[in-house]
Design brief:
The protein has three helices and 23 strands. With about 350 residues, the chain is mainly beta. A hairpin with a 5-residue loop joins strand 10 and strand 11. The two termini are about 15 Å apart. InterPro entries: DUF4432, Gal_mutarotase_sf_dom, GH-type_carb-bd. This is Aldose 1-epimerase family protein. Pfam families: DUF4432.
Length: about 350
């Protein structure tokens, strides 16, 4: 337990003895030049906010035990990214960390969709890559630090990500991340706004990725699932258990599920991954009205071992289907949507 404000001031001349937020710059390999904010709450919860990668959360651990997934790509500098490489699959070359944001105008697999609403004849359509552009856009860091609210010390950071082009979308994401000194939770508040004057499509998804040692043979998914409404073909072919997880499997093909969740009486969806052997659980909760859909990504492949929890604004069928069935979110001029998500480690 963290001492109260006065006692803490008596014990140390610098709050960083207990925890805090520190801005650093990564300096080697594909990560060179990426700014990161290191959060430490003093309970063992530590995580880094990747300022130059949409303010996503990269490494995350508790008491020295990692739970944010680490892929072979590292936290690649966005200057190395080409959105249209490899038929839109280049997103997979920078896919790593606890949170990778998908959006802001497109999620899920790529494809070509009409762009006539932008009224620029040479741009009759737009081609999207996997999960959109947001994850590889740097943020403008607007503030970070520690703030006392009576006897509660809040660690915080806020930044702005702009996805824009002339004669195309002009979307702004304002992201705020908070954690309490002495606490074991991360709070994420995102507001996506249409800063332009043409109605603009909006799709949003969090790719929340949990890895070893939290994920291990015998770890399990905890979720109140009403029904599973969609499965990838690989589920029937491989039949790997998506509730109690196996260990790594060479050559495993990702299994993806769309689950319809039952919200709690407070209107929140809650999912978790628990490891009884480790005595550790990471849970995620969000308002069902903000993210009505949920996907589970099971990636048991050796060397890429992970499970993904994915709150989403849209069904797994994607962009073109959302336009066709009328479920696409269209943000009008200066219109916005806000999303609230909480992570807890226990």
């Amino acid at each position: 337990m963290t001492p109260d404000r006065r006692r803490l001031a008596e014990l140390t001349g610098d709050l960083s003895a207990a925890g805090g937020v520190r801005l650093v710059t990564l300096g080697d390999g594909v990560e060179r030049g990426v700014r990161a904010l290191e959060f430490r709450t003093g309970t063992g919860l530590a995580f880094e906010v990747l300022v130059d990668r949409c303010m996503d959360i990269g490494h995350a651990e508790h008491a020295g035990r990692s739970f944010g997934w680490r892929s072979p790509t590292g936290f690649r500098h966005p200057g190395l990214h080409e959105n249209n490489d490899e038929d839109g699959l280049s997103w997979l070359r920078s896919f790593s960390g606890l949170i990778v944001t998908a959006g802001l105008d497109h999620t899920l697999f790529g494809g070509e969709v009409p762009a006539g609403g932008y009224r620029y004849p040479p741009r009759a359509s737009v081609r999207h890559g996997l999960h959109g552009r947001a994850a590889n856009l740097p943020a403008r860091l607007t503030g970070y630090g520690e703030r006392w609210e009576d006897e509660r010390c809040v660690l915080w950071a806020e930044g702005e990500v702009r996805q824009a082009a002339v004669f195309a979308e002009n979307l702004r994401l304002v992201r705020r991340i908070e954690a309490d000194l002495g606490g074991n939770e991360i709070r994420l508040v995102d507001t996506v706004s249409n800063a332009g004057f043409e109605p603009t499509p909006h799709m949003f998804l969090y790719h929340i990725n949990l890895g070893w040692p939290l994920l291990d043979e015998g770890a399990r998914l905890e979720a109140d699932i009403r029904e599973t409404v969609w499965r990838s073909d690989s589920v029937a072919e491989q039949k790997a258990d998506h509730v109690t997880f196996p260990g790594p499997v060479p050559g495993f093909v990702e299994q993806v599920y769309e689950h319809a969740l039952v919200p709690g009486e407070d209107g929140l969806h809650r999912v978790a991954v628990a490891n009884d052997r480790l005595g550790m659980k990471v849970s995620v909760e969000w308002p069902a009205a903000e993210f009505p859909y949920f996907f589970e990504w099971l990636n048991l492949r050796s060397g890429n071992y992970a499970v993904g929890l994915e709150p989403s604004t849209h069904h797994v069928s994607g962009d073109a289907a959302a336009r066709e069935d009328g479920s696409m979110i269209w943000l009008g001029p200066l219109e916005s949507r806000t999303y609230h998500t909480t992570f807890r480690v226990s």
